C-alpha cells in the first residue's frame, strides 16, 4: 500500500488475515493441528521497541528509497568486503541497503529500535512473542555471514 510517497506493508491487516486463516483451519482440522510456522519473502523487516511496539509501518522492498543506496554503501565499505562477509548477490532492496536508507531518512527511528524482525519472524513474534531471526531469511539481508552465522559489523 502507498502511505504518503512510500510503499509499505500493511502488517496489521496481514496479521488479521493470518488469524482469520488460522481460525478457519482450526474449525476444519481441530486438534489435529499441532504446530504452525510462517515462511515469507526475505529482506523486509519490522522494527520493535523494547516494549514490543512497532516503529512505523514497514517499508516494502520495492520502495524507491533504496535507489542509489548501494553506491553510498560502497563508499563506506568496499563492495568486495561486503561480498566477502556475506556472500550475497547485490540487489538494491537487500536489507543492508534498506537500513542505510532508513538511517539516512530517519536516524532517530533506528536509535529507538530494540529489535529488527524479518517478515516471517514478525509473524512468529505475533503468534508467540519470540524475537528470533531465522537463519535462511536472515541470510537474505546481506548483513549475515553465511558460514559463521554472525551479524557482520560492516552492516
Number of DSSP E strands: 4
Distance between the termini: 28 Å
What is the tally of helical segments? 7
Overall pLDDT:
94
Shape: globular
Strand order of the largest sheet: 1-2
For the CA atoms, what is the radius of gyration? Answer: 17 Å
- Unreliable runs, pLDDT <50, ≥5 residues? none
Query: What's the order of the H and E elements?
Result: EEHEHHHHEHH
Structural class: mainly alpha
Helical residue percent band: 40-55%
Description:
With 155 residues, this protein is mostly helical. The protein is built from 7 helices and 4 strands. It has helices at 11-29, 69-76, 79-86, 95-105, 107-111, 119-128, 135-138; strands at 2-3, 6-7, 45-48, 115-118. Strands 1-2 form a two-stranded antiparallel ribbon. β1 (2-3) and β2 (6-7) form a beta hairpin. The protein starts with a strand and ends in a 17-residue tail after the last helix.
Characteristics:
globular; mainly alpha; 42% helix; two-stranded antiparallel ribbon; single chain; 155 residues
Summarize the structure in short.
Helix content is 42%, strand content 8%. The chain has seven helices and four strands; from the N terminus they run E-E-H-E-H-H-H-H-E-H-H.
Lay out the secondary structure.
Layout: E1 2-3, E2 6-7, H1 11-29, E3 45-48, H2 69-76, H3 79-86, H4 95-105, H5 107-111, E4 115-118, H6 119-128, H7 135-138
Antiparallel strand pairs: 1-2, 3-4
Helix pairs in contact: 2-4
Amino acid at each position: 500500500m502507498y502511505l504518503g510517497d512510500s510503499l509499505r506493508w500493511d502488517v496489521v491487516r496481514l496479521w488479521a488475515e493470518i488469524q482469520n486463516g488460522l481460525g478457519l483451519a482450526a474449525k476444519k482440522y481441530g486438534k489435529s493441528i499441532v504446530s504452525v510456522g510462517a515462511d515469507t519473502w526475505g529482506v523486509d523487516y519490522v522494527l520493535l521497541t523494547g516494549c514490543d511496539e512497532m516503529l512505523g509501518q514497514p517499508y516494502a522492498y520495492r520502495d524507491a528509497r533504496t535507489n542509489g543506496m548501494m553506491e553510498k554503501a560502497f563508499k563506506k565499505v568496499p563492495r568486495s568486503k561486503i561480498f566477502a562477509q556475506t556472500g550475497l548477490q547485490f540487489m538494491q532492496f537487500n536489507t543492508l541497503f534498506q537500513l542505510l536508507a532508513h538511517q539516512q531518512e530517519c536516524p532517530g527511528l533506528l536509535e529507538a529500535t530494540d529489535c529488527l524482525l524479518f517478515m516471517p519472524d514478525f509473524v512468529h513474534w505475533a503468534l508467540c512473542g519470540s524475537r528470533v531471526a531465522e537463519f535462511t531469511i536472515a541470510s537474505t539481508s546481506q548483513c549475515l555471514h553465511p558460514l559463521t552465522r554472525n551479524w557482520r559489523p560492516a552492516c
